[in-house]
Amino acid sequence: MPKTLSPAQARAFYDRFGKKQDAQSFYEDVATADLLNHAAFEQAERVFEYGCGTGRFAQKLLQSYLPPTAQYLGCDISQTMVVLTTGRVQFWAGRASVRQASDLSDLALPDGGYDRFISTYVFDLLEPEAIRGVLGEARRVLGPDGRLCLVSLTFGQKPVSKVVSWLWGRVHQLRPQLVGGCRPIRLLDYLPKAEWRLEYHKVLTAYGISSEVVIAAPFSS
Q1: How far is residue 10's CA from residue 129's CA, in Å, rounded to a whole number?
Q2: How far apart are CA 221 and CA 219, in angstroms?
Q3: Burial (0-12, 13-18, 19+ Cβ within 10 Å), 178
Q4: pLDDT tens-place string over residues 58-79
Q5: Which residues make Cβ contacts (< 8 Å) with residue 143, sequence separation at least 6?
Q6: Taking the CB of residue 102, how many other CB atoms lie within 10 A of it?
Q7: pLDDT digits (tens, 9 = 90+) for 150-209
Q8: What residues pair up with 116 in beta bridges, in sequence order?
C-alpha cells in the first residue's frame, strides 16, 4: 500500500501551495493539451472536474473548447484552490461553478448527469481504494455518451524518464510532502475492461517527467 497523504494533510498542503502549483505547467501542459485535443469537448454540454486545482484547465476549457451553452462544475479539497479557480472562471459565472468538497458524496451529483468527468494530476495523490471509489462515481454520473478524461503522473518508458520516475517514487515513499503527495501510477491498472472501453491512451514525457493520458467510456451496468 503506497504511503499517501491523508485528506487533511492534502488539504493543508494545497492550501499553502496555492498558485505555486502553476509552476508545474512545464511538464503538465503537454499532457493536458493532448487531453484537450482528443476528448471532443466541443460536443460536451455538462462537464465535471474532480480536483480543479488553480483553474488553469477549466479556464482553457471554457475559453476555447466547450460550446457556449456548456455547464462546468469543478470541485477541490482545498479552499485556496476553490478561490483561485472561481477567480479564473468568473467571466463564465452564469454557467461555471466551483465548490469545496472532500468527498464526491458531498456534491450529490445526479446519475447520468454529465458528458465528461475530468481529473488531471489528482489520482496520483490518492490511495488505490480511493481511486476505485472515484471511478465508481464517474461511472454513475456519466451519461450514455459520456467520457472519462484523466491525466496522471506515470512511470517513464525510456532511460532518463525511468530514472526520474523511480527517483520521484522513492522520494514519495520517504516523505510524500516533498512531492505534494503525488507519485507515478498506471491509470490503466484501475480501469477494468468489463467496466470501461478505452478510447485513447498515451504516455507523454516533458523534461524527463512522464504523464499518462486516458479517455474511456463506461459500459452500462
Answers
A1: 16
A2: 6
A3: exposed
A4: 999 999 999 999 999 999 999 9
A5: 112, 113, 114, 115
A6: 14
A7: 999 999 999 999 999 999 999 999 999 999 999 999 999 999 999 999 999 999 999 999
A8: 47, 147
The count of residues in the chain is: 221
Cα-flanking dihedrals φ and ψ of residue 38, to 5°?
-125, -5
Q: Is 120 in contact with 35 (CB distance < 8 Å)? A: yes
Least Cα distance to 81 among 63, 105, 104, 56 occurs for: 56
Beta carbons of 146 and 176 less than 8 angstroms apart? no
Q: Which three cell numbers stand for residue 33?
A: 493539451
Torsion of CA 74, 78, 82, 88, to 10 degrees: -100
- pLDDT score of 173: 93
The C-alpha cell that represents 168 in the structure block: 520521484
Strand ranges inside the chain, DSSP E: 46-50, 71-76, 96-100, 114-120, 142-153, 196-206, 209-218
Cβ burial of 26 (10 Å; 0-12, 13-18, 19+) is exposed
Burial of 87 from C-beta contacts in 10 A (0-12 / 13-18 / 19+): middle
